[in-house]
Amino acid sequence: MRTTDLIRFARGAATGNPLRTTLLVLAMAIGVAAVVVLTALGDGARRYVLNEFSSIGSNLVIVLPGRSQTGGFNPGNAVTSTPRDLTIDDAQALLRASAVYRAAPLAVGTSEISAGGKLREVTVAGTTAEFIEVRRLALAQGRFLPSGDWRRGASEAVIGAKIRDEMFGRGPALGQVVRVGDRRFRVVGILAASGQGLGMNTDELVIVPVALAQAMFNSNTLFRILVEATSREAIEPAKAQVTEILRLRHEGELDVTIITQDAVLATFDRLLGTMTLAVAGIAAISLAVAGILVMNVMLVSVAQRTAEIGLLKALGATGVTIGKAFLTEAAMLSVAGAVLGFALGHAGAAIIRQLYPAYPAFPPGWAVLAGLGTALLTGILFGVLPARQAARLDPVQALAKR
Amino acid sequence: MNSELIELAGIERVFRLGDSEVHALRRLDVSIGAGEYVAVMGPSGSGKSTLLNLLGLLDRPDGGVYRLAGRDVTTLSAEEQARVRSEQIGFVFQSFHLVPRLSAAENIALPMILAGIAPAQRAERVARALCDYGLENRADHRPDQLSGGQRQRVAIARATIMRPAVILADEPTGNLDRATGEEVMRLLEELNGRGVTLIVVTHDGGLGARAPRQLLMEDGTLRHDRRRLAEEAADPCARPT
Ligand SMILES: Nc1ncnc2c1ncn2[C@@H]1O[C@H](COP(=O)(O)OP(=O)(O)O)[C@@H](O)[C@H]1O
Ligand SMILES: [Mg+2]
Questions:
Q1: A68: pLDDT strictly greater than 80
Q2: Rounded to two decimals, what is the model's pTM?
Q3: Distance CA A70, CA A77 (A)
Q4: Which of A82, A96, A247, A334 has the greatest count of CB atoms below 10 A from its CB?
Q5: B235: CA distance to ligand 2 center in Å?
């Protein structure tokens, strides 16, 4: 049989039974699409969290006031009950540790910002010059807070991109004076727009010297101390040293929680990696169900077409020719289903990305390949095996089957 | 070398159903020459279809030797047998056995498609066959849009399209009314007139009597092998062998 005839014959057989063809292609497509979308969701969640954490900075050791019960990462109860303040002096003391490269104190509160008659609520972050390095922030314009004595500070502020847009529009912002709470600050820098950030959106932030922020909020305690270790390997030593210094400073009691970004990251990575696998497992089940459906439809179809196979043999077709005809048909259906599923799955992932732009819902390559491979393999296998079985019958036996 | 086209020697066919055995054919010896017109007759269950299926290589005997054009075809591989079916044998079935999704023209072309014949040559032969069997206006009709007689004409066109040496027809008129059956028999006899060996199974004595040679089957054996020598001259379809 010629190749073009083989294709035309297979296409005729496929379109000659539209219900079966639709069922097969749909089953296959849904299976593949499920794999693509579900793994895109799972892996997207993993990537989202990893992105967020790495955008905070690297080699970070974070000190929170208050002792969390479990010792794990639980910011919810970590900020409650603070027996002893976490102070600027505490932060400064950490600089003595050999494994500590930099540290930045962070005091946070909400206030109002006003300029040129415009007023809005704003998150105020009190910190020091080191903050921009530790948090890996970028400036769009101007400079960051000047380094100097942490317990003083000039009335200068660095504002986020969105604050700048809302307060000053298209006009110049650098050098302008803004009122935050009951104090006046001169704008010396504007942060580059970042759009995302775990917990704190830097686009809507006003950064002022930590001493002024504490005065503004009338509090001596810090929200966090961000500590940058000298290297990745120094993270654990830094954590130990920070723990020791703070214990000494707090009369032998460790009333702070110290977490490392690495540990959090590793936990999330493991957790979400497992989740992706679990989701892939669910998708694999849907693919297996599709495969079983394909197998059944193919078995029934070949049983129905055993007489046709007998006729083809009576008309001079060899077993090889019949095998090829069914292989072509099964391959056509499988490829159609797989391609449709691939397109549907990617469309689904694209819709998710459209709806949640911050969420990188891209299916991992291994999952897509595995999904396509499984679909093609089951489709072709289940299409060809029963046909080969039928083709091995003597023509008269096959013809007699109705 | 023997000049007979078909030689059966000691052919056995036994069907096993559980413990019981049905001897559909018992030690059958028959020879049929090229260009003969043979009617196979006998009561139902006497083994006529079994014989025809063996002749058409649709079935394998349990014993004996079948020579087609001097060649032992019982020992051929399945693929070689398929070739013999493709090139030498045309089959016409009682229930037509057309492929429902294919048009009349496509059904007729099917053996050539399976044999890998070039499309141009196919189109030419199919067009001629459609003409020969009065199906010019039915070329694109599917079997369910055709009458019984038209379907059997499509089936005969399909059986002859590869220009086989033998046409085997198993009760070709069994599903047709009298007049249409006559018409189909006339077409088959015309083929025989052009030199094709024709073997027709029928249990209709009238139709069987039209053949110059009748094989009368009974219980898997050959009861009579009758040649109608006297009327031969009067019948324009019959040729001396
Ligand atoms: N596939 C089969 N399995 C079992 N027995 C069969 C089969 N085919 C035919 N037979 C038996 O073989 C005998 C001859 O059958 P067949 O050749 O079809 O008879 P006829 O065509 O003369 O009516 C019958 O007894 C029939 O029951
Ligand atoms: Mg019969």
A1: no
A2: 0.70
A3: 10
A4: A334
A5: 27
